[in-house]
């Protein structure tokens, strides 16, 4: 019962994301691309460790190439991670703005009895802070579900 209610609530929250689907798609693509670069580091380290430090062994490429590749990998990962975080934060802030506007539109139509029964601090807290918590929780779920899952699958694929 609880999972049906949670999935319905999450689907309702995603309906607020629809107007920003393109930017949201860019964020997801950035997360996927950043996660796909995770196996590059062990792939680069393997030839360096296998053929670079033993006596009489020559590495596949000069150390300068490995250093440049390492810096390149971290630069690409940093750029992709930053762009994914930026786009996801942008969408999250827009969704928070839309949720607050919808809450305020309903709040001004409430009867005066509601405001007599509830303190102004509790009502303000719902508008100001609860919406941020919902948006933060949804972005964390998405990051773990997409980015971390792809990183684990890629690293397991490299391992096997």
Number of contiguous helices: 6
Fill in the CATH topology: ABC transporter transmembrane region fold
N- to C-terminal distance? 39 Å
Series of H and E elements: HHHHHH
* Main sheet summary: none
From the spread of the alpha carbons, the general shape counts as elongated
Instruction: Let me know the average pLDDT.
Output: 82
CATH architecture term: Up-down Bundle
**CATH class assignment:** Mainly Alpha
pLDDT < 50 stretches: none
Computed over alpha carbons, the radius of gyration is: 23 Å
Strand content: under 5%
Helix content: over 70%
Give a quick summary of the entry:
With 160 residues, this protein is mainly α. It contains 6 helices and no strands.
What does this protein structure show overall?
There is one protein chain. This protein has 160 residues and is mainly α. The protein has a single domain (20-159), classed as Up-down Bundle (ABC transporter transmembrane region fold), CATH 1.20.1560.10. The chain is 83% helix and 0% strand. It has helices at residues 2-15, 21-36, 40-51, 63-107, 112-117, 120-159. The longest helix is centred in the middle third of the chain and has 45 residues, at 63-107. The radius of gyration is 23 Å and the shape is elongated. The mean pLDDT is 82.
Please name the defining characteristics of this protein:
single chain; 160 residues; mainly alpha; ABC transporter transmembrane region fold; 6 helices; 0% strand
Q: Helices, strands, pairings?
A:
Layout (H helix, E strand, L loop, with lengths): L1 H14 L5 H16 L3 H12 L11 H45 L4 H6 L2 H40 L1
Helix pairs in contact: 2-4, 2-6, 3-4, 4-6
